[in-house]
Write a structure and sequence with these properties.
Blueprint: H1 6-45, E1 51-52, E2 57-58, H2 67-71, H3 74-85, H4 90-103, E3 108-109, E4 112-114, E5 120-122, H5 129-145, E6 150-156, H6 159-162, H7 176-185, E7 191-194, H8 196-201, H9 217-227, E8 240-249, H10 252-257, E9 264-271, E10 277-281, E11 286-288, E12 313-318, E13 325-330, E14 347-351, H11 360-366, E15 371-377, H12 378-381, H13 386-396
Parallel strand pairs: 6-7, 6-15, 13-14, 13-15
Antiparallel strand pairs: 1-2, 3-4, 4-5, 8-9, 10-11, 10-12, 12-14
Helix pairs in contact: 5-13, 11-13
């Protein structure tokens, strides 16, 4: 038998390698096709979900097929979003993706940084500069048009700013401290309140949840005590009854990343001596005697224990007898913050501009508002378009 030359051996190895790759590719394609086919079969027998409790968000629904949606491409992008959101077993696949990513050294999964000490941190979005300019312009005009009302703005940094030392090495993040300074510099007529430095002094404490994008009640208390002088509160309460109401909170970042290694404790703070108050939800006209909704502790989103979640308008009447009425524009960061405001205002009117569509001018006229506070986390504020719309309605309604 003729002995193979070195060249022939190399060519034979190359052929075997190509054959192996073709077989592997074919197997992978067959597995992928089988999974897609299985999903299509399961989709027939599985109704679409409108809401994901695990991810705390609405899920994409099947798009309508029309000539317009096909021609502008929205049908195909909507179809992709629908298939992704309605994927059968989605939550399990998210966790599987996390484990696979960790094996290859990934430190960011689905927009969530996997940080030191079990912290999950939301990757901050880049500011929407057009929306931000519109919002700051509306705030400035609102303050100028209401010189008899103190208008304050408090922007709360996210965990990536305050707990930067826990981020993965070289993780790209937006400099929120610089963002806040730039925003405040554009609002010379507004009482701008910064709490970043004070929060950083307490970064060794549990001031942000490990599994959620919100700050904790402790973080809100530290910020409130730093803000109090700027709000005209000279002697803030120093004594609170602190109650841990849950030790099994898994927030939205745990669901989004698929990481279920940690659970958080939720605490509520009740000022001593206790102030009596009534809370009215205008969307349901329901009045209760607590800012806490214990039924939410039985659900996935336990942060909803504060006011039961977000509402367009909430009115709080207290026995503080201070002669002060506060109009609070807010996002969900304010939900756990309000418990610290109760002793200082006769009335607190909470408006969430994302859901509020009524006339703001009439609120200002009827409610004898003496102070306005806008409290947002920076990430939300730099993307928000709703606040400017609501503030503009005050000018249009006068």
């Amino acid at each position: 038998m003729t002995q193979m030359t070195q060249l022939e051996k190399q060519q034979a190895r190359r052929r075997r390698l190509l054959i192996n790759r073709a077989v592997q590719g074919g197997c992978a394609a067959a597995v992928l096709a089988a999974l897609i086919l299985l999903q299509l079969v399961l989709r027939v027998f599985t109704p679409d979900r409108a809401y994901s409790e695990a991810e705390n968000r609405m899920l994409a629904q099947a798009p309508r097929m029309t000539l317009t949606t096909i021609s502008d491409g929205s049908f195909f992008s909507g179809l992709s979003d629908w298939f992704s959101d309605q994927f059968v077993g989605r939550d399990g696949w998210i966790t599987l993706n996390l484990h696979a990513g960790r094996l290859i050294g990934q430190r960011e999964i689905n927009g969530v940084y996997l940080c030191a000490d079990g912290y999950l941190m939301e990757v901050p979005e880049q500011p929407d500069e057009a929306a931000l300019s519109q919002t700051t312009g509306a705030i400035g005009r609102f303050a100028a048009e209401h010189p008899d009302v103190q208008v304050s703005l408090a922007l709360i940094p996210n965990a990536t700013c305050v707990l930067a030392g826990k981020l993965p090495p070289d993780a790209p993040v937006t400099d929120q401290r610089a963002q806040i300074s730039r925003i405040f510099a554009s609002l010379p007529g507004v009482n701008c309140i910064s709490v970043t430095d004070e929060l950083r002094l307490h970064r060794a404490e549990e001031i942000y949840y490990r599994t959620d994008h919100h700050w904790t009640s402790l973080g809100a208390r530290i910020a409130f005590e730093a803000m109090a002088p700027m709000l005209g509160i000279d002697e803030p309460v120093q004594s609170y009854a602190v109650y841990p109401v849950s030790d099994s909170f898994e927030g939205t970042l745990a669901s989004k990343s698929g990481s279920h290694d940690r659970q958080d404790v939720i605490e509520v703070y009740i000022a001593q001596p206790e102030v009596r108050y009534a809370v009215t939800y205008t969307d349901t006209q329901k009045t209760v005697c607590s800012v806490y909704d214990s039924s939410k502790l039985e659900q996935k989103d336990k942060y909803g224990v504060f006011f039961g979640g977000n509402h367009a308008r909430v009115d709080i009447q207290t026995t503080a007898d201070t002669g002060r009425t506060l109009l609070l524009f807010k996002d969900s960061y304010a939900n756990c913050f309000v418990q610290f405001l109760l002793p200082y205002y006769d009335r607190i009117i909470m408006l969430d501009p994302r859901y509020y569509y009524d006339d703001l001018a009439s609120v200002l006229r009827r409610e004898n508002v003496s102070e306005v506070l806008m409290l947002y986390n920076v990430n939300t504020f730099c993307q928000d378009r709703a606040l400017s719309v609501v503030l503009q309605s005050a000018a249009e309604g006068e």
